[in-house]
Amino acid sequence: MADTPHPPHPPRPPGSPPPTSADVARQAGVSRATVSYVLNGAEGSARISEATRARVRAAADELGYVPHAAARALRAGASRMVLMSAPHVPAGPLYARFAHEAQSALSRLGYTVAHLAAGVGGATGDVGDAGAAGDGPGAPADVRAWAELRPTAAVALPPTVLTPADVAVLKQAGTRAVITVGPPRVAGAHSLTMDQREVGAAAVAHLVERGRRRVGVVVPAEPGLDTFSGPRLAGAHAAAVEGSGGGTDVRLRPLPLAFTEESAAALAARWPALGLDGVFAYNDEYAMLLMRALQDAGVRVPEDVAVIGADDLMLARLTRPRLSSVRLDRASGAEFAAYVDELVRSPASRPRRRRAMTVTVTAREST
Amino acid sequence: MADTPHPPHPPRPPGSPPPTSADVARQAGVSRATVSYVLNGAEGSARISEATRARVRAAADELGYVPHAAARALRAGASRMVLMSAPHVPAGPLYARFAHEAQSALSRLGYTVAHLAAGVGGATGDVGDAGAAGDGPGAPADVRAWAELRPTAAVALPPTVLTPADVAVLKQAGTRAVITVGPPRVAGAHSLTMDQREVGAAAVAHLVERGRRRVGVVVPAEPGLDTFSGPRLAGAHAAAVEGSGGGTDVRLRPLPLAFTEESAAALAARWPALGLDGVFAYNDEYAMLLMRALQDAGVRVPEDVAVIGADDLMLARLTRPRLSSVRLDRASGAEFAAYVDELVRSPASRPRRRRAMTVTVTAREST
DNA sequence: TTGAAAGCGGTACCAC
DNA sequence: GTGGTACCGCTTTCAA
Fold this sequence. Notes:
Chain A is α/β, with parallel strands linked by helices. Helices cover about 40% and strands about 15% of the residues of chain A. The relative contact order of chain A is 0.11.
């Protein structure tokens, strides 16, 4: 169709091994050292004549030479690679956005970012994986595989958890910054705390403020969400205690719920018996599911029961009534990247924790 | 708190370099070769006495020895690493599920799977990145960075696109299998075709079947979605042509829409003037947005206009009326993993394309 | 201005 | 049974 500016590369025999810097050197009639200088533009080292540079570049181009990262890393001793754990549960848009921002900021800083799955093997011995959902609650990272790659920094995003031993292994392998993002405080690691308790606390506080006293808290039945739901429930409890006093107590009731319409309908059916006037539905998705089921069962929102979710999804604003939500603002990916970079530069600094999240309630019609 | 079974590792001076196999050899009083044999359990090579094996393993354990992947890859010439492009736009649950399945199936097959962002640089010269949304439409992969890692296989998931030149670079670097997942057919690469045109075609065919003749097709204003929306619109056109004849023609109208309530409200406001009786809303999210806006503007669904989305999101089933949707069933991650493995084993095979997707319409109340 | 050569950490052949 | 050793591809000091 359109004419290709550079005809890809002279289609070499497919079986032939990738060209090395030695090949380039031979082709250009210079030494490997010269090739290295030219291609890396190491100014401080040697000045190569412009003619030679051109020859080398031409040769590299023609051969389709691409340096071998492993060889380079081996020689250099370090790899400027940042490993981040890949989510196993379908990640929300907030997460995706954060990950992408961090990613691109870090690559602007010259790091190569790779998302590695937290492997199946590890401490918790969950054999097979019957459930389609995930590798189990708070899946352990396969740190061996990580450490083998000698990353410059390792970032564990929820729901991946790192044990102190994991951190030790990584440090031992020369990882300059080990960072956990999420609730658990891990010995030896820097951390960006995202205390999920605050989410539950904010939600319940809001409901209490709205005059609700008997509050349900949805706890997803899905495995792999425990990392979040546990702390959210705990925070809810704390807020309930806080909100009590002055005569009327706030009563909390955990409500297991699977993310299916059947489960929601079942819960809605026994709703009157529960006698609740408010519910924190874990997140917006569960909230939408529950709200629909409640309405179908004749329960009015917010008159009979106030419903609040979390994550402030765009879609959740479209419900009738519009859903109130706890909004989580994460630190921007760029800030995060800067933090990582800082730690890599001065790994001596004592493990610190940083807030990674601010929580605010967006009140809409459902409360 | 709980007693650690293995006290992580004798806390060595943090500044010290990671232990090498030579360190292990010294500690165990054997040669590096022996260490290698023991730790890799290379049965065919040599039989080491059980006593020695134990000493080596003990030493490795005590030192917290972790082999250096780069060194191994260098020696081996190959790296059993599968690179997959990371999504830049927030990925849907289908995508996440697929990626995770593929990931875990591949690691069961002994591959290390890494998700690499398709970097900013590349063929399309979009300078800077003013927009927060994405790196531009159908972002080009930074294949150089990929090729440097000498992956055994490279997988481009949408919206990442690979040019034939990209494929050549990867192959040149020894990548045994280059696979693109998505619409475009790329020379030299194997592919899992996911023809998005089928989605648009199925949606419009369904609307026609329901008796609709003047059909709108939502085209997201967001950049980065072009890869999908273009083909979906094209497919819609094809189906419109197909559905025409027999007296009444099917008329199609592209409807630009940003994913904001304002944009949706604006579109809804001029709805009567458009004179449409059916709309394919690109996907369920846009469909929900549009449907809400239409209803707020007094347009009845499905009486005045039939609405259909795509992706069959759980949340979209909860709307009133329940949203009809085009459901995409991807090949399972496990199948995909097997495909990759097969290609890696016999890279000689001619590039093939495989269907990766089946499309079915789930009719609900909105049509 | 350029080349020779010494490694980085592991693996695997071959000799003892 | 085990140890010596030659690589893998690249960087970088030192000499020429």
